[in-house]
Design goal:
five-stranded mixed β-sheet, single chain, about 40% helix, 8 helices, alpha/beta
Length: about 200
C-alpha cells in the first residue's frame, strides 16, 4: 500500500475475546512508510517480557496508536464478536487522524465499510497488525493486573481473566465480580435460576 501512495495504514487487532472476565481491548497502530520493528510477531507467540520490550519500541516508533475497549457489560449485551468490532471502532476513533486504509486481523468488519482489508492470521502476516496485537495484549494484561489487586483470589495477575482451573475454582468459592462476563461458560451456569 505504501508503494501505491497509501501512507496512513492502520493495523487493527484485539485481545481478550476468550477470557471469562475483563474487557475486550483493541489497538490501532499506524507507522510512517518504511518504518518497521524487528522481532514483531503475533502477541500469542511472544513471552510477556518480549511483548513489553516490543510495546515500548512500538510506542516510540509508531506515527499513532489508538486504544479502544468494550466492557464486560457490552460483551454480554452485544456478544463477543460485536463487542470486539466496537472496541476496534473505538481504537480507530482514538487515532489523531483518519487512516487512508485499515487492515484488520481475521474476517471483514462490515461496520468499517470498503476502506478496510481483512487478513486471516493477520497478526502473523502483517507487521502493523502484529504491532496492534502486541499493544492490545500488553494494555489489556496491565488492566487485568490492576483489577487483580481489587479482586484478589481470582489470579488475574497471572491468568488475566482466562478460565484457568484456579480462576474457575475462585468463581465457585468467591462468586462473580462485576468484571465477569455473565454470558460466558461457566459463568452462565452459575447464574441460572432453577425453576
Amino acid at each position: 500500500m505504501w508503494d501505491r501512495g497509501i501512507e496512513l495504514v492502520a493495523g487493527v487487532d484485539e485481545a481478550g475475546r476468550g477470557p471469562l472476565a475483563g474487557p475486550v481491548l483493541a489497538a490501532a497502530v499506524v507507522f510512517a512508510p518504511g518504518v518497521g520493528i524487528r522481532g514483531v510477531d503475533d502477541s500469542k507467540k511472544l513471552t510477556a517480557e518480549k511483548r513489553e520490550a516490543l510495546f515500548t519500541e512500538i510506542r516510540s516508533k509508531a506515527l499513532a496508536i489508538g486504544i479502544g475497549a468494550a466492557s464486560t457489560k457490552e460483551v454480554d449485551r452485544l456478544n463477543i464478536l460485536r463487542a470486539s468490532h466496537l472496541a476496534m471502532r473505538r481504537a480507530l476513533m482514538r487515532l489523531p487522524f483518519e487512516p487512508q486504509h485499515i487492515i484488520v486481523d481475521g474476517l471483514p468488519v462490515h461496520e468499517l465499510g470498503d476502506r478496510h482489508t481483512a487478513v486471516v492470521d493477520g497478526d502473523a502476516k502483517v507487521h502493523c497488525i502484529a504491532c496492534a496485537s502486541i499493544v492490545a495484549k500488553v494494555v489489556r494484561d496491565r488492566a487485568m493486573h490492576l483489577l487483580a489487586s481489587r479482586y484478589p483470589g481470582y489470579g488475574w495477575d497471572h491468568n488475566v481473566g482466562y478460565g484457568t482451573l484456579e480462576h474457575r475454582d475462585a468463581i465457585g468459592s468467591l462468586g462473580l465480580t462485576p468484571h465477569h462476563r455473565r454470558s460466558f461458560e461457566p459463568n452462565t451456569q452459575l447464574t441460572l435460576e432453577i425453576l
